[in-house]
């Protein structure tokens, strides 16, 4: 398996927008966004809640399907430059049309058209996971779930939950998850980033999803780690995101390697790469530097990611072929 080819399962589309991209769109629309940027031109983020505020302020300039078309091309080009041949991006109808179904379908059509072009131009395949934003509340999540159910198919292959996981309980969103499940969409749910091991346990109890976003806080509970290993739940780990936001103090203390050693299926992604000054190449380089990982470990996490991808089987077979050539 070629280790220069990578699979990324945890990438927020708006979160992958570079500061330059957002500045350019803001300039064109005459929107003043100077307060979200630091003096060095990067996003200014102080902590997790502030990160969400900056993220939402940056996303607010993306107000038309054309903006998302440009964003998608920019993000897929950048990802392909770091060796990514398949990525799943979290797509939010809250940001794409405010949860309105007709508006969402326009945004999705624009994204899908560009994704198909990028596949031809850059050799990267993109799929989407429609994602509810937890801190927008259960009522809004129903509109998001309807958008997901109505667009389930080739591009939209999963349903997820992101946002502030310290708010509410996963079961508060049961209507949305039931709706998405009826449409045949598997789940990837953010938990165990900020919410502690308890949030991972609650998420497993409520939905037993095949994938959990982050999940790293599970490390504080050995029984839970054993349960994750037993159920084969795949964790979408994003180490640089955790470091920048202060979930863990440094690379050495990141639980990724310990979770893997305990038999938990782990994968590696960038989450929101420009916010965390990372990309997939840098993540792999850091894994090599701090954990001594090499081709065997990289091949293993890539295989895990391929098996955990929510795409249809024909696409999985195609990506598998690309990995081995
Ligand atoms: Zn995330």
Protein architecture, described:
With 325 residues, the protein is an alpha/beta fold. The protein has one domain (6-319): Alpha-Beta Barrel (TIM Barrel). The protein contains 13 helices and eight strands. It has helices at residues 19-28, 48-60, 65-81, 101-122, 138-151, 174-182, 196-207, 222-231, 239-245, 256-261, 280-291, 295-308, 313-324; strands at residues 6-12, 84-91, 125-133, 156-162, 187-191, 211-214, 234-237, 265-268. Strand 4 (156-162), helix 6 (174-182) and strand 5 (187-191) form a beta-alpha-beta unit. The relative contact order is 0.14.
CATH topology: TIM Barrel
Helix content: 40-55%
Q: Uncertain spans, ≥5 residues at pLDDT below 50?
A: none
Radius of gyration: 18 Å
What strand order characterises the main sheet?
1-2-3-4-5-6-7-8
Please outline the major beta sheet.
8 strands, parallel
Shape: globular
Q: Write down the secondary-structure element order.
A: EHHHEHEHEHEHEHEHHEHHH
Structural class determined from secondary elements: alpha/beta
Tell me how many strands there are: 8
- Rounded to the nearest angstrom, the distance between the terminal CA atoms is 8 Å
Ligand identities = zinc ion
Task: List the domain count as a whole number.
Answer: 1
Given this structure, which CATH class is correct? Alpha Beta
